[in-house]
Design brief:
With about 210 residues, the chain is α/β, with parallel strands linked by helices. The chain has helices at about 1-15, 45-50, 70-80, 90-105, 130-140, 165-170, 195-205, and strands spanning about 15-20, 30-35, 60-65, 85, 110, 140-150, 175-180. It is built from seven helices and seven strands, in the order αββαβαβαβαβαβα. The chain has a seven-stranded mixed β-sheet, with helices on both faces. α1 (about 1-15) packs across α2 and α5 (about 130-140) packs across α7 (about 195-205).
Length: about 210
Amino acid sequence: HSLLVKYVAIPIHTLIISIDFPRKMEIEPGSIVIFNHPGILDAVCILRVMNRIKNLKVITNSWYQFWFPKGIISWLLEVLFGGIPLYDSGQKLNTVLQMDSDMLDRGYNLLFAPQGALQRHDQEDPFKPGIGMLVKLIDKPVYIIKIGGYRDLWPSPDKDLDQFSFSEFLPKKRGEVKVKISKKIKLDWSSLGAMQITNLLEENYKNL
């Protein structure tokens, strides 16, 4: 995973997308890192941040249907981002959350896009309540990474990921994006409801 990210994914992505990084970047191991989802392979920006702070131990929760049937999308999620299928409810969801918690205890960081699907319009989608439930149950610090300007360079077509043609997967142009990183957010999550946590994190994101 680390070798593929450092020597294949990041160099290729850097040829297309340059990043204006903040001067100071700190993300504590064992944290939840949430980010906006403005375009194709935007999460590689997050990997580039994690590489700079020398912690590429990451896992990602992604919609379980990417694995049915298993194909190139699920392979990329697993190999590049430590992808784990995220279910809506039931014992499978509980198993995933326990796995997330165990991996964070081992110093991994959980990458999560709280808006869900790729951004397909200029107006961003609101945070989904699932992020509040996730944070409440796992009870770890949260950092927010905001990627600005990405949609102008490598936008997502207005269709499902598995319906993209090869040409639609390609970037519109090369250019620079700006990354902002929040300070650590750690409250007594157990005292807050899932929707309260969601709203709080979304407000912090908007103010970043």
